[in-house]
């Protein structure tokens, strides 16, 4: 459980598709029961933007250039463009062809190109900060900011490895300002007992929060049930995946449809550090993704079984 949450939800939250991808005990959805606990914040991902068309309403010919070209036209750096998509500030739709390839609807691009104030607002929404700048934004010390981040009080949007091969987390400046508004008591004075105990025990919710955010986005972007099932499969260790999906043909399909957990190269050469972020290892989190994978596999099998032998039930050895 999150260190500032004292009870678990019986079921995952039901808000949009995030309900299917964020663990019910995920710190983004706390259930405070004590005065010092963190109240439930707004959704991690922004709601539908008014420039976001429904996929069924947009013909293929109305789609625009690739995401890389759009980022260049809007004057966004790579990580800013990725943040715009992750935060729901810029819509994308499937482009067809290879799985997980996305394009930006022309209507969205035309609106942004034609309105300088809208472009400036977009850049403001996707502004990301590291721990030092985030602490300055909240008016607290970097040490306190890091403790709050480790305790799961807010979620990283991305990360990279610096020249010293250390993991550097990036946060949405807008989300941090919102956090300061609904949790001012965590910025001053003594931290809640549960948070202090968890931190003393070495808790670090940053990788888990990032995985929850990233898998939520990917599950919404999936264009078919097997792609959707490949999302939770991507964060499970191979032995765990074999337990949940004993059929080798199904595992092969999931590997083929594996989503891009990292939207871009985080830099550096410490693959072990990156792997720690990409894979779920906490037993509670692993149970959630196992359950999610079983549910998605049931839907995928009903739609179209994997080629080869008839699939075995989830979690059943041949």
Automatic annotation (TrEMBL):
Residues 1-65 are annotated as: Disordered. It comes from the Bacteria. Residues 29-44 have a biased composition (Pro residues). InterPro entries: DUF6397 (IPR045652). This is DUF6397 family protein.
């Amino acid at each position: 459980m999150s260190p500032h949450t004292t009870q678990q939800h019986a079921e995952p939250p039901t808000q949009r598709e995030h309900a299917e991808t964020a663990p019910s005990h995920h710190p983004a959805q706390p259930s405070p029961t004590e005065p010092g606990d963190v109240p439930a914040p707004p959704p991690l991902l922004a709601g539908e933007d008014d420039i976001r068309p429904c996929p069924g309403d947009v013909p293929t010919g109305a789609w625009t250039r690739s995401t890389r070209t759009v980022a260049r036209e809007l004057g966004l750096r790579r990580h800013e463009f990725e943040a715009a998509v992750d935060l729901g500030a810029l819509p994308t739709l499937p482009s067809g062809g290879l799985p997980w390839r996305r394009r930006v609807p022309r209507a969205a691009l035309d609106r942004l190109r034609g309105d300088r104030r809208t472009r400036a607002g977009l850049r403001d929404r996707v502004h990301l900060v590291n721990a030092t700048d985030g602490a300055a934004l909240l008016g607290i010390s970097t040490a306190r900011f890091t403790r709050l981040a480790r305790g799961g009080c807010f979620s990283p949007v991305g990360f990279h490895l610096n020249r010293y091969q250390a993991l550097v987390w990036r946060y949405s400046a807008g989300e941090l300002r919102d956090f300061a508004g609904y949790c001012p008591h965590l910025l001053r004075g003594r931290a809640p007992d549960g948070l202090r105990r968890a931190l003393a025990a070495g808790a670090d919710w940053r990788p888990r929060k990032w995985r929850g955010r990233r898998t939520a986005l990917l599950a919404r972007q999936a264009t078919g049930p097997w792609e959707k099932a490949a999302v939770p499969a991507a964060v499970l260790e191979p032995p765990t995946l074999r337990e949940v999906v004993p059929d080798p043909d199904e595992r092969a399909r999931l590997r083929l449809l594996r989503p891009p957990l990292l939207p871009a190269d985080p830099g550096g050469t410490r693959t072990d550090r990156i792997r720690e972020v990409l894979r779920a290892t906490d037993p509670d989190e692993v149970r959630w993704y196992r359950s999610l994978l079983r549910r998605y596999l049931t839907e995928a099998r009903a739609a179209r079984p994997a080629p080869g032998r008839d699939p075995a039930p989830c979690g059943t050895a041949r």
